[in-house]
Amino acid sequence: MLSRDDVFEELGIGPVWRLREAPGAAASPLTGLASPAMGWDELADAVAHCTACKLHLTRTQGVLGVGDRNADWLIVGEAPGANEDAQGEPFVGQAGKLLDAMLAAIGLARGDNVYIANVLKSRPPGNRSPEPDEIAACLPYLLNQIALIRPKIILALGRFAAQTLLCTDETIARLRGRVHEFQGIPLVVTYHPAYLLRNLPDKARAWEDLCLARRTMALTDL
Ligand code: URA
């Protein structure tokens, strides 16, 4: 039987540590996942009533996440958009339809061994990009979710999820195509579905990333 280290070696995990040491890489605030500060009920309540950043002034509701709280797969997106803000669930718009199709392509379905969350729990107005202070304020919720779920693999969708979890400012183009590690959990980066809707040729690369994630999962299951 392969050990976790064997698996990581086989997958070539490790570059993330070099990235963290790279000049300009941010120091990692992502330590000490071991025990979640809040249980699910407390977390849901905290997100619903959160006023930690300015987004609470404009959001309809906080969007915690959706799916199987014991999932092997954790999908992390950027932030709720207009549809998600209205419905209280991540990825319910056009990008969500594509995400569901991407999951189906590797034999997965929303809610079935899959949990979907975002870096930000509140919608940035006008769907603008998350700002650093908003990410800093919201990150503890995602870390708490990861500590509760303890997924076997994380799929980071797009720049904000990837850069936040890996503490780097590397581009998606450089981060995708290999397996990183987040707190001992394999992490694969791919394009955000909203980006793929506008850049169809990159769907082939996203498919490669999904296959890499599926292969990684199969190895961690050995
Ligand atoms: N884009 C995201 O990153 N997350 C959502 O929930 C919806 C769109």
Question: How would you explain this protein's 3D organization?
Answer:
By secondary structure, this protein is an alpha/beta fold. It has one domain (4-20, 37-219): Uracil-DNA Glycosylase, subunit E (3-Layer(aba) Sandwich). 44% of the residues lie in helices and 12% in strands. The chain has ten helices and six strands, in the order H-H-H-E-E-H-H-E-H-E-H-H-E-E-H-H. The chain has helices at 4-11, 15-21, 40-48, 82-87, 94-105, 132-149, 158-166, 172-175, 193-198, 203-220, and strands at 66-67, 73-77, 114-118, 153-157, 179-182, 185-190. Strands 1-3-2-4-6-5 form a six-stranded mixed beta sheet, sandwiched between helices. A hairpin with a 2-residue loop joins strand 5 and strand 6 (185-190). The chain is globular. The N and C termini lie close together (7 Å). Residues 11-32 have low confidence and may be disordered. The structure holds uracil.
The residue-averaged pLDDT reads 89
Q: Per the principal axes of the C-alpha atoms, what is the gross shape?
A: globular
Characterize the biggest β-sheet: 6 strands, mixed
CATH-defined superfamily = Uracil-DNA glycosylase-like domain
Helicity level: 40-55%
Helix and strand composition category: alpha/beta
CATH architecture field: 3-Layer(aba) Sandwich
Number of strands: 6
Radius of gyration: 16 Å
- The number of distinct structural domains comes to 1
Number of helices in the DSSP assignment:
10
Supply the CATH class. Alpha Beta
The hetero molecules present are: uracil
Unreliable stretches covering 5 or more consecutive residues: 11-32
